[in-house]
From TrEMBL:
Keyword Protease: yes
Residues at the active site: D141, H220, S489
Extent of the signal sequence: 1-28
GO-annotated molecular function: serine-type endopeptidase activity
The protein, known as: Subtilisin-like protease SBT1.6
One Pfam family of this chain: fn3_6
């Protein structure tokens, strides 16, 4: 989906991805005098008529013009400004101000995919969507390296007339860098620069390593963009800028995908939880970059590596584990932790964690080492990620790492060498859910199952910037047109690109319908036709790991039925989780009137079912879930239900048959789940799982069922 796709890109640079966190009001302290950046959400209809614009109102009533960084009037109304917390607290008291957020940094979710997604040239979704032509894909990331062949506009048609954006110029980025592929580009640096000034610096832009333009100095944005078209406890939705911004987009028909995060395999680590977002986990594909550690006793240990320099040619070298000394910094190969007298001329074992994997190799190289074995511990399990190391290096899973450490401790003069196999395709089993991919359940609203689905996110090849070497280290002077990265940031643009193709094939589908098509047609089997497994444990993956499963675009183009959701449904959902009208207005821009009899959050028309039962009650309890499906297949269709029941529960569906015709295109049904904390058989992930499928002989419309035991706060 890189250079061959004709989807059109809009690139928006938000340097270092500055976002915002909850503004907590407190009593005055020394910190209250520190200048910080705050974002204020304002009721747009409260502007007094005496002011010709919102900007004039803001500068007259809230902050001096020199303090204001941005004025927002598209997704939401408001402004950002550099203020002390005392000033921000005062502004927040104004009746027209709905909410405020303190600016904060957000980390990037990164640590042969078209075929693996089920895309084929000249048939199926790729060709039937006209390769995504006339669909505009927006990427919010670190920028773009426009010279890459992935962004060539050769043989593309004219820019769509609906495009209203601009091509913003800046350092080493002119209007000529936009074309019929990159139709627009913006960069946003004021908040970053203000953060630099508030900490005593001259500004946030270091022009020796960053560009004051949409040009990419990091590589992450170039990588995710060419894929798409070519942290802790989650904040409430009304205090989450991603949730607020994405709602504004979704309410206008824009599909928004977001990465689930890289804090797996810890449970409840998934981020980007809003139900109007499509939250994407990461899995492997059937391509690998194998390498082997061969020990002096002849034992061969399997690992991965992207090292492409001079090989060791089978020569055996002494191998040493600095962690034997008991020093944590030495075991992790931290900067200045290795003694060159002990390292020179040897292959060094470095434990994974704390500092970047490639940085460990640089530390070994500086100390005179000839190679590195990157050893997983129990927390990373068997999850392996390939890196473009500066020295011969091989990453080993926890079991193989224990083997080499055992060999060293039991051998007088241990030796080893590292062998590289290059690229191997057809790997089985695949996909496997990556150990780093964040997991459910949803820690904010457990009635909504997250992540939604998974896509390729391990060792993904895509375009790269010339501003930095493939490792991202300052000392890496290599230049590469492409690079291979891993992370849910790599999985997310696969879903964005997939949505562009589906939107082109089905222009009338809503963002919720597009998500539903991908979720209900996703697969939870690997290419051995067995249940997908978890890389961290080797056990079968669950919906807390993979959501509905791995996206399959050939099936998604013709899903049979879809679960659609509109703006009013989302407002009712927000009412159901006890948000008051002002909180809801922060998200939706419109004043909300919640009904006297509120809906239940689990009755949002989601393509999955998440049942939450109290853990403290041993009695049998029943919950009923209402869903409505829209027929997007043959007019006269009959679907029957099939249930895979979670262990220890009972599930019924009424009616068990859905009959569609030319006049009946939507039908509702009720799913009733009965269970108790004593009866349920909970797995290692803390849930019990099953599936509801609707079948018509051609389509299988499948939804995961997850049952969680949680006591209300």
């Amino acid at each position: 989906m890189a250079s061959s796709s004709s989807s059109i890109l809009v690139f928006k640079l938000f340097l270092l991805l500055l976002f915002f966190t909850h503004f907590i009001l407190s009593t005055a302290t020394v910190d209250d005098l520190t200048i910080k950046t705050y974002i204020f959400r304002v009721d747009e209809d409260s502007k007094p008529s005496i002011f010709p614009s919102h900007y004039h109102w803001y500068t007259s009533s809230f902050a001096d013009p020199i303090q204001i960084l941005h004025v927002y009037d598209t997704v939401f109304h408001g402004f950002s400004a550099t203020l002390t917390s005392i000033q921000a607290t005062s502004i927040l008291q104004h009746p027209s101000v709905l909410a405020a957020f303190e600016d904060r940094r957000r980390q990037l979710h990164t640590t042969r995919s078209p075929q693996f997604l089920g895309l084929r040239n000249q048939r199926g979704l790729w060709s039937e969507s006209d390769y995504g032509s006339d669909v505009i894909v927006g990427v919010l990331d670190t920028g773009i390296w426009p010279e890459r062949r992935s962004f060539s506009d050769l043989n593309l048609g004219p820019i769509p007339s609906k495009w209203k954006g601009v091509c913003e110029t800046g350092f080493q980025f002119s209007s000529a860098h936009c074309n019929r592929k990159i139709v627009g580009a913006r960069f946003f640096a004021k908040g970053h620069e203000a953060a630099g000034r508030s900490t005593g610096g001259m500004g946030g832009i270091n022009q020796t390593v960053e560009f004051r333009s949409p040009r990419d100095a990091d590589g992450h944005g170039t990588h995710t963009a060419s894929t798409a078209a070519g942290d802790g406890v989650s904040s409430p939705y009304y205090l989450d800028p991603i949730a607020i911004g994405s709602y504004g987009a979704a309410s206008r028909g824009v599909f928004v995908a977001s990465s689930a995060g890289n804090d797996g395999p810890t449970g409840m680590s998934v981020t980007n939880l809003a139900p109007w977002l499509t939250t994407v986990g990461a899995g492997t594909i059937d391509r690998n970059f194998p390498s082997y550690v061969i020990l002096g006793n002849g034992k061969k240990l399997s690992g991965v590596s992207l090292y492409s320099g001079l090989p060791l040619n089978g020569k055996m070298f002494p191998v040493v584990y600095p962690g034997k000394s008991g020093l944590l910094s030495a075991s992790l190969c931290m900067e200045n932790s290795l003694d060159p007298k002990l390292i020179n001329g040897k292959i060094v074992i470095c434990d994974r964690g704390s500092n970047p994997r490639v940085a460990k190799g640089l530390v070994v190289k500086k100390a005179g080492g000839v190679g590195m074995i990157l050893a997983n511990g129990a927390s990373h399990g068997e999850g392996l990620v390939g890196d473009a190391h500066l020295i011969p290096a091989c990453a080993l899973g926890a079991n193989e790492a224990d083997s080499v450490k055992s060999y060293i401790s039991s051998t007088l003069n241990p030796t080893a060498t590292i062998v590289f196999r290059g690229t191997v395709v057809g790997i089985k089993p695949a996909p496997i859910i990556a150990s780093f991919s964040a997991r459910g359940p949803n820690g904010l609203t457990p009635e909504i199952l997250k992540p939604d689905l998974m896509a390729p996110g391990v060792n993904i090849l895509a375009a790269w910037t010339d501003a930095i070497g493939p490792t991202g280290l300052d000392s890496d002077n290599r230049k590469s047109e492409f690079n291979i990265l891993s992370g849910t940031s790599m999985a997310c643009p696969h879903i964005s690109g997939a949505a562009a193709l589906l939107k082109s094939a089905h222009p009338d589908w809503s963002p919720a319908a597009i998500r539903s098509a991908m979720m209900t047609s996703a697969s939870n089997n690997n290419n051995l036709f067995e249940s997908m497994t978890d890389e961290s444990t080797g056990k079968p993956a669950t919906p807390f790991d993979i959501g509905s499963g791995h996206v399959n675009l050939d099936l998604a183009m013709d899903p049979g039925l879809v679960y659609d959701i509109g703006s009013n449904d989302y407002v009712n959902f927000l009412c159901s989780i006890n948000y008051d009208p002002k909180m809801i207005q922060v998200i939706t821009r419109m004043p909300a009137r919640c009904p006297a009899r509120k809906a239940l959050p689990e009755n949002l028309n989601y393509p999955s079912i998440s049942a939450v039962f109290p853990i403290s009650s041993p009695r049998m309890q029943t919950k009923t879930f209402i869903r409505t499906v829209t027929n997007v297949g043959p007019l006269n269709s009959v679907y029957t239900s099939k249930i895979e029941v979670p262990k220890g529960a009972s599930v019924t569906v009424i009616p068990s048959k859905l009959v569609f015709s030319s006049t009946v295109k939507k039908l509702s049904f009720a799913v009733t789940i009965t269970a108790s904390s004593k009866s349920l058989v909970m797995g290692d992930s803390g849930g019990a799982f099953g599936y509801l499928s609707w079948l018509d002989g051609r389509h299988v419309v499948r939804s995961p069922i997850a049952i969680t035991l949680v006591d209300p706060l």
